[in-house]
Amino acid sequence: DKIELQRIRREIEKHGPSMKYLTNEIINEAIDAEIILAHYAPIPGELINNAEKLKIIGICRAGYENVDLIEATKKGIPVFRVMGRNAEAVSDFTIGLLLAEARNIARSHMLLKQGIWLKPQEENIHDLKGRIVGIIGFGHVGRLVVKKLSGFGVKILVYDPYVNENEIRKAGAEPATLEDIFKESDYISIHARLTKETKGMINERLISLMKPTSYIINTARAEIIEEEALIKALKEKRIAGAALDVFWTEPLPKDHVLLKLDNVTLTSHLAGTTIESLTSSPELLIDDINRLLSGGEPLWVINPSVLKNLSIFNSCS
Fold it and tell me: In angstroms, rounded to a whole number, what is the distance separating the alpha carbons of residues 160 and 166?
């Protein structure tokens, strides 16, 4: 069941590898494994400790919430992930969502299929040229969004406290504070990772700073935004609208209030889903593992402290 699988993935992402029970049969199958590769499948401490020959864990995505990283590190097992695997896909989709919401593309399509010829919210439709776009998070996706938006003639502000300001300027954007982004931007696009630091980072106070003609776009993780704060702003029309590909509960419940609002564009967590992003992930992961096994320095090991003991790889088959 694809819907149930999506729900379980989100639960693992929220609560870690132990929330999904693994049968003894699955755990026993891993006893002789030297390398375990997975996508969302949970890799709890019980499995790691039971697999006495295990030397490498690889995850075909950037998030590693499905792995018990503490137990893997205790056993000296490097955990690989794949960074930027779907950055092209997500950045393309982000710009598509921005246009769909700001230019009423999806809304007009829906109305026309209902037999209604109408130009919704035409009093708030603007050219992108000359507008201000705020980018929160300057990682793989954020950088590509900045690059691709540069052709639209917009001014781009970027908030990322972990990136040197000169690096942001070299990309053609201007570094800014969170407050300035919410005060000045016509479009705000979220590209931060979900961490303890970023969870709920976009709260009622920040949303209250937005212009009534501005939009928020989220293709990252829903929990970065306080749900009630965003819904309240949308219901009260204190902001122009939102375009969301991620939600606090997935799949989105059929009675969710967002489905009743006329100033949102919603998609079912599609941003990173392309044939290329799905097929390239295992290849990128294997390339990085081979880089280590060949004596090189891997790019995406989450717990690099374990690499000091390289002798553990001598017996890899």
Answer: 12
Indicate whether 1 pLDDT > 60: no
Catalytic annotation present for 221: yes
> Known catalytic residue: 236?
no
Q: Is the peptide bond before 251 cis (omega within 30 degrees of 0)?
A: yes
Write the DSSP assignment of 60-119 as a string of letters.
SSS--TTB-HHHHHHTT--EE--SSTTHHHHHHHHHHHHHHHHTTHHHHHHHHHTT----
Model pLDDT for residues 245-287, shown as the tens digit of each residue: 999 998 899 999 999 999 999 999 999 988 888 788 889 999 9
Catalytic residue, candidates 221, 227, 291, 297: 221
* pTM for this model (two decimals): 0.84
Of 70-84, 169-183, 296-310, give the range with the top mean pLDDT.
169-183
Point out the catalytic residue in the list 167, 250, 256, 291: 250
Note if 191 is an active site residue: no
Q: How many CA atoms lie within 13 A of 85 on its CB side?
A: 27
Average pLDDT over residues 236-244: 97
DSSP 27: H
Domains defined for the chain, CATH in brackets: 2-84+275-313 (3.40.50.720), 87-266 (3.40.50.720)
Task: Identify the active-site residue in 9, 10, 191, 269.
Answer: 269
